[in-house]
Amino acid sequence: MSKVVMGSDRHLAADEVLGMMRRRCPSISLATTYNTLNLFVQKGLLDTQVLKA
To answer: For residue 50, what pLDDT is reported?
Structure first.
C-alpha cells in the first residue's frame, strides 16, 4: 500500500487507494485499507484531508 500511496502524484481518497490495492490484492478489505492509512498517519508518513461536500 505504501507504494500505491507514495507513488501517486496527487492526493488519493481512501476508496481510490482501495480500488488500486484490489488490483494487486483482490481480497483486501476497506477496514484494512483504513487501518493501514491511519497507521501511516500515526507514523507521520501521511496527512489527512477532510473535504466538505
So the answer is: 83
